[in-house]
Specification:
Keywords: Signal. This protein folds into two domains: 47 residues, no CATH class; 92 residues, no CATH class. The protein is 32% helix and 13% strand. The protein has three helices and four strands, in the order H-H-E-E-E-E-H. The longest helix is centred in the C-terminal third of the chain and has 23 residues.
């Protein structure tokens, strides 16, 4: 008799637990009262997530990384003389240690952020810092940005000629 009861109770408990995952408010609550009175329908609203979204692979793999590959590779190439401390292609951030540029006399470190998948100057943010936290001339920062953008365009042109 106990076996028979567990055969019924265990699956029933599992079904009730899964059904409860879709409930977003107290039982019997009116979900329409939670809406914004200025909301004129479901246009523009995002779909609510469920427990099943954890197991679905519905995301576009091309949207997983929102970093322009040409800007990313150009940043790594242009600043290859600096030691890399942190490189994260998922957030688009490169942090380097101190190093002296070829032909230069003053060391600096760089933090680069590639924030957009477009090959655009607005997608690139470069921050340079001298030893002891001293500021680097804005012309130097602009020159590094220009060098990265120029190299990114060259890489893009080279890929199109394949």
């Amino acid at each position: 008799m106990i076996r028979r009861a567990t055969r019924i109770i265990v699956p029933l408990t599992a079904v009730l637990a899964l059904a409860a995952c879709g409930i977003t408010g107290p039982v019997g609550s009116d979900r329409t009262s939670e809406r914004n009175p200025l909301d004129r329908g479901s246009e523009g609203r995002q779909r609510e997530s469920t427990v099943w979204d954890l197991f679905s692979n519905s995301g576009d793999p091309n949207e997983t990384v929102a970093v322009n590959r040409y800007l990313w590779n150009a940043s790594l190439e242009i600043l290859d003389f600096l030691p890399k401390q942190s490189v994260d292609p998922f957030t688009g951030i490169i942090v380097t240690g101190y190093g002296t540029p070829p032909g230069g006399g003053r060391p600096y470190r760089a933090t680069i952020k590639v924030s957009d998948p477009a090959l655009d100057a607005r997608a690139l943010k470069v921050s340079l810092q001298g030893p002891g936290g001293s500021a680097v001339a804005p012309d130097t920062v602009r020159a590094v940005e220009d060098a990265i953008l120029t190299r990114a365009r060259q890489l893009r042109v080279r890929d199109r000629n394949l």
